[in-house]
Amino acid sequence: MSENFLTIVNLSKWYGNGNIHVLDNINLDVFRGEFVSLLGPSGCGKTTLLRIIAGLEKQDKGEVRLKGEQIVGPGQDRVMVFQDYALFPWRTVLGNILFGLEVRKIKKEEALKIAQNYIKLVNLEGFENSYPHELSGGMKQRVALARALVCDPEILLMDEPLAALDAQTRNMMQSELVRIWSATKKTIIYVTHSIEEAVYLSDRVIIFTPRPAKVKKIVKVDIPRPRDRFSREFVELRAKIYEQLH
Known about the structure:
This protein is α/β, with parallel strands linked by helices. Helices cover 35% and strands 24% of the residues.
């Protein structure tokens, strides 16, 4: 991992003509290839921070730099993956995954080859011609993940992408996400409300205070992967983070 890949410096954000203070002087470095989870009380500003990194919102103070360059708006080097999948219902699995390549005007033959590689990566072979309404929640999230990865972004910004899934599917998708992250070496910044999910997935967990959000604690997860949710070290770390959060 290299230093200064993504750097957040003295970042603050207000809403409502300055009446609602959301983010308060956030300072954070994220390393290349790192999986970082943002954990904090509901409404503390985690998603706002993610949207600022994506370039979808502007901060009122401070800056965000990616590889030394200040982020001033959206870019192909950052892609968001949402909880509600945001798939096009009129497009097939293949059509949804091809969308970003079409926007970039990649030649059809090359785009199909790239899309098929990512369909294979997320284990959706055989479902290329299925429509979103024919898929389970876990499969829809795989499509959303493949659609994000196909454009080869520097960073994946994931806003509670598994929150709508049932517990069994969510655990399975967490394992799949670790596998895909390991294969692609992408930098992932992941918003979650689940302490267990953060410990299972992350290299580091960033714990925020209630609004206005400040960085309260950064917890390094040194547990080897694949992680056993019932191991003593996993349970102890989960309890430690719970104490910090509450």
